[in-house]
């Protein structure tokens, strides 16, 4: 599903190939936290990454951001292999890290000054005001972080990231510290911006419902060490998203069940063959493929095309 059918999207805008990250353990040995992570993202696509705590989600995201050195493999964005951070990629972390002595306006202007160095002062001011308005902070532009709630601060962080006009947005549990109402509000703020600006986006989340509501595809990571993509799940919901329509969609609970079941399976980590036999008892094709994928985890690389095809089957039921 192309969320923006007006313009042809680059089907391989992001290419992550055989990505590996090893960190030293306390004995100085290199442990491969992430090992053989493969993912291709279409331009404008929103992909959520879910997986158990500590599996390596942030490690993947920070490598894509260019903030964390790659041990092996490659990441290309817009046809260029990355070798560090760049203005084409913006990151929003759980905590927005605003400069406390600067107002909302000044915090956003900080990046805009750098990226639009050749624009006039008036142009830069308009850009900042536009994005503060987009996140619902037009009236709070002169507030300092201490005068703002956590949700407002995160809005500033989002405005700051989007105002840089990145080609890719990387969100690392951006709503993790917010209450559920603010969280829903900000999900819609981001979705509205993404629909307008067509930014390819990777979102890390622990929240299955958030993953389903926000993204076009969900990437499920296996547990670490040696974590990689376990499964990819296509979501059949149209854009712009409508929360009620998503929740009432006939496939919603089936898709949710597929995500929860994957996570539970990772929780228990039953031996792969045994797990496949268990799953084969279910007459649901989706679960059958989950089981087969699980058997491949031990030795063979995941065939992304195969899982994708299965997921398209799920979507075809719409
Ligand atoms: N700089 C580091 N040095 C050594 N080990 C690290 C480092 N950063 C992360 N790790 C380890 O790598 C593993 C993956 O960490 P990461 O933060 O990527 O996981 P995560 O899936 O994002 O976790 P969470 O969902 O809890 O945020 C963890 O075991 C973590 O302890």
Walk me through what this model shows.
The chain is an alpha/beta fold. The chain has a single domain, classed as P-loop containing nucleotide triphosphate hydrolases (Rossmann fold, 3-Layer(aba) Sandwich), CATH 3.40.50. 41% of the residues lie in helices and 19% in strands. The chain has 11 helices and 10 strands. The strands form 2 sheets. Strands 6-7-8-3-9-10 form a 6-stranded mixed sheet, with helices on both faces. It has a 4-stranded antiparallel sheet with strand order 2-1-4-5, with helices on one face. A hairpin with a 2-residue loop joins strand 4 (72-77) and strand 5 (80-81). Helix 2 packs across helix 3, helix 2 (104-115) runs parallel beside helix 4 and helix 10 (285-296) packs antiparallel against helix 11 (304-316). It is globular, with a radius of gyration of 20 Å. Mean pLDDT is 85; it is low at 270-318. Adenosine-5'-triphosphate (ATP) binds next to helix 1. Residues 299-318 are annotated as: Disordered. One of its GO terms (cellular component) is plasma membrane. GO terms for molecular function: ATP binding; ATP hydrolysis activity; nitrate transmembrane transporter activity. InterPro entries: AAA+_ATPase (IPR003593), ABC_transporter-like_ATP-bd (IPR003439), ABC_transporter-like_CS (IPR017871), ABC_transporter_ATP-bind (IPR050166), NO3_transporter_ATP-bd-like (IPR005890), P-loop_NTPase (IPR027417). It comes from Aeoliella straminimaris.
């Amino acid at each position: 599903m192309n969320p923006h059918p007006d313009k042809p999207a680059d089907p391989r805008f992001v290419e992550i190939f055989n990505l590996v990250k090893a960190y030293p353990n306390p004995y100085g040995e290199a442990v491969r936290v992430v090992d053989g992570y493969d993912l291709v993202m279409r331009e404008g696509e929103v992909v959520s990454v879910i997986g158990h705590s500590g599996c390596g989600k942030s490690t993947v995201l920070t490598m894509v951001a260019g903030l964390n050195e790659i041990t092996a493999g490659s990441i290309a964005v817009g046809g260029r292999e990355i070798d560090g951070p760049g203005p084409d990629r913006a990151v929003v972390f759980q905590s927005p890290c605003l400069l406390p002595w600067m107002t909302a306006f000044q915090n956003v202007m900080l990046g805009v000054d750098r990226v639009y160095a050749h624009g006039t002062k008036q142009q830069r001011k308009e850009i900042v005001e536009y994005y503060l308005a987009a996140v619902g902070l037009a009236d709070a532009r002169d507030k300092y972080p201490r005068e703002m709630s956590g949700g407002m601060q995160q809005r500033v962080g989002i405005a700051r990231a989007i105002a840089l006009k990145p080609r890719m947005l990387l969100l690392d549990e951006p709503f993790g510290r917010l209450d559920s109402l603010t969280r829903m509000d900000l999900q819609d703020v981001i979705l509205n911006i993404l629909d307008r600006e067509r930014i390819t986006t990777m979102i890390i989340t622990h929240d299955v419902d958030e993953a389903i509501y926000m993204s076009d595809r969900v990437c499920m990571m296996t547990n670490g060490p040696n974590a990689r993509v376990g499964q990819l799940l296509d979501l059949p919901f149209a854009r712009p998203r409508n929360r009620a329509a998503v929740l009432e969609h006939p496939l919603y609970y089936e898709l949710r069940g597929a995500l929860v079941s994957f996570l539970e399976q990772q929780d228990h980590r039953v031996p792969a063959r045994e797990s496949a036999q268990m799953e084969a008892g279910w007459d649901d094709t989706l679960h059958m493929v989950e089981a087969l994928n699980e058997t491949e985890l031990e030795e063979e690389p995941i065939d992304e095309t195969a899982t994708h095809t299965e997921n398209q089957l799920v979507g075809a039921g719409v």
